[in-house]
Specification:
The protein is α/β, with parallel strands linked by helices. It has five helices and five strands. The chain starts with a strand and ends in a 5-residue tail after the last helix.
Length: 142
């Protein structure tokens, strides 16, 4: 049975989300606070294995017009290093607006600014994974 995990990779934090058992929707899981490139790769590999991921979906930041930005290059480099250490497929998914949507959700729920940083990345990862799951459930991916 397929099990998807998503990572929203940022410079300071990485949001983690996992699919429900039926791959219908995404559940925010945790926020990993970055410690260093090698440690981060090792930690994400462990998280993916511990969660039983059969596919990893990584958010790829691009400009509003879809062109690549400096952050795209940095993230792609990290994803390539992660992919080299994983034994499951890694898929990049457009992450435009996912963090903004996560912030809006947390603000609408009345969460204070200082607490949002602990949740926003996991919720953004869930938004990335929801978009991916929607595509595969419609037969558009994989």
């Amino acid at each position: 049975m397929e099990r998807y995990i998503a990572f929203d990779i940022g410079d300071k934090r990485i949001g983690v989300a996992i699919s429900d058992p039926f791959n219908t929707y995404a559940l925010p899981s945790e926020t990993y606070f970055r410690k260093g490139f090698k440690q981060d790769i090792e930690a994400l590999v462990k998280i993916a294995k511990d969660k039983g991921a059969t596919t990893v979906v990584c958010g790829l930041p691009v400009n509003f017009d879809g062109s690549e930005a400096v952050q795209t290059v940095k993230t792609r480099s990290f994803i390539e290093a992660l992919e080299a250490e994983l034994s499951v497929p890694v898929i990049c998914e457009d992450e435009r607006f996912t963090t903004m949507m996560a912030h809006e959700t947390l603000i609408s729920e009345g969460m204070r600014r200082e607490k949002r940083k602990n949740y926003v990345d996991a919720l953004a990862a869930a938004n990335i994974l929801d978009g991916f799951l929607c595509k595969i459930n419609k037969g558009e991916n994989k």
